[in-house]
Amino acid sequence: MERKEEERVCVTGAGGYISSWVVKLLLSKGYVVHGTVRDPRDEKKNGHLKKLEKASENLHLFKADLFDYEGLYAAIAGCTGVLHVASPVPSDNPSINPEVELVEPAITGTQNVLNACLKARVKKVVVVSSVAAVMVNPNWPKGQPMDENSWSDTEFCKSAKMWYPFGKTIAESETLEFGIRNELNIVTICPSLVIGPNLQSSLNLSSSILLSYLKGEINTMNCRVQQLVDVRDFAEALLLLYEKPEAEGRYICSSYTIRPEVLVEKLKAMFPHYNYPEIFIEEKGGPFDFNCKKLLDFGWKYRPLEESIVDAVKNFEESGLLVGK
């Protein structure tokens, strides 16, 4: 796609793990970026954005959260496109109400973004969903990699209290229907577990799963067969779908499927001095894999898994999350 001078793109939740890399990539490509954040003055959460190359002239931060329609519209107005990345993530904290913390922001927040996009007459919207909206499908043929035709069963999710996939599935299906109904060019992308180095100072959930192996911890998240994609490769996929006029519908974005014990062996080979977990509980209902042919056919490429792991671990050490050995 040939870019006009000073094309503006809005990135929601700009200070987050994935969003920060998306902002960095957009700035490097010459875009003017409007980023939504909860508090533009919060240097702890957003200071890293202001240090990015070209940020001083081409990055504009707007105060808005997913429930703030007016704030979202102010950020989106004047933009050619929107990359909606902001999203709540699951937590093991028993004190939270998952329906309030996960479902409402996913569904209502996305609706607010889309309504603002429609009013602002943006030309293209890419909405980040999740493989959680793909993989909870009891009727999918066993052993067959899941593709874009697989949707998580919302009734099953609801009965099993799987609120994160429930919210992501409804939000994504409503997003695509909204685009058709309103003749708005919308594409969705479903990433697997995103790993790689952090730009922000806070630890995000996906990085904490990788970190837990290095700390010898065993929990419900790191015992699963992992489907992984590098955060930088995912940012490239987002921009690819934004810039490709022929992109349509939904896309799965995942690079590797790996069992936890195999991942730990890779970590041990590269970083032998950490205390790794030794026993993993077999995952129920798995393992499964994803078919990313639709995205790969667009020319998307991804880096070796070892590069993602090394860069992530070095980042953990440099930021003090791990004591370097």
What structural category do the secondary elements indicate?
Answer: alpha/beta
Poorly predicted runs are none
Shape: globular
The portion of residues forming beta strands comes to: 5-15%
Count of helical stretches = 13
Strand order of the largest sheet: 3-2-1-4-5-6-9
Total beta-strand segments? 10
The radius of gyration is 19 Å
Task: Report the order of strands and helices.
Answer: EHEHHEHEHEHHHEEHEHEEHHH
Q: What is the end-to-end distance?
A: 46 Å
Please summarize the sheet with the most strands. 7 strands, parallel
Residues in helix, %:
40-55%
Q: Would you tell me the overall average pLDDT?
A: 91
Characterization of the model:
Helix 1 (17-28) links the parallel strand 1 and strand 2. The chain has helices at residues 17-28, 43-50, 55-58, 69-76, 98-120, 132-135, 154-159, 163-182, 205-214, 231-243, 260-270, 293-296, 305-318, and strands spanning 8-11, 32-37, 59-63, 81-84, 124-128, 186-191, 193-195, 226-230, 249-253, 256-258. Helix 4 crosses helix 5 (98-120) and helix 5 packs parallel to helix 8 (163-182). Strands 3-2-1-4-5-6-9 form a 7-stranded parallel β-sheet, sandwiched between helices. The chain is of the alpha/beta class and 325 residues long.
Helices and strands in order:
Blueprint: E1 8-11, H1 17-28, E2 32-37, H2 43-50, H3 55-58, E3 59-63, H4 69-76, E4 81-84, H5 98-120, E5 124-128, H6 132-135, H7 154-159, H8 163-182, E6 186-191, E7 193-195, H9 205-214, E8 226-230, H10 231-243, E9 249-253, E10 256-258, H11 260-270, H12 293-296, H13 305-318
Parallel strand pairs: 1-2, 1-4, 2-3, 4-5, 5-6, 6-9, 7-8
Antiparallel strand pairs: 8-10
Helix pairs in contact: 1-10, 4-5, 5-8
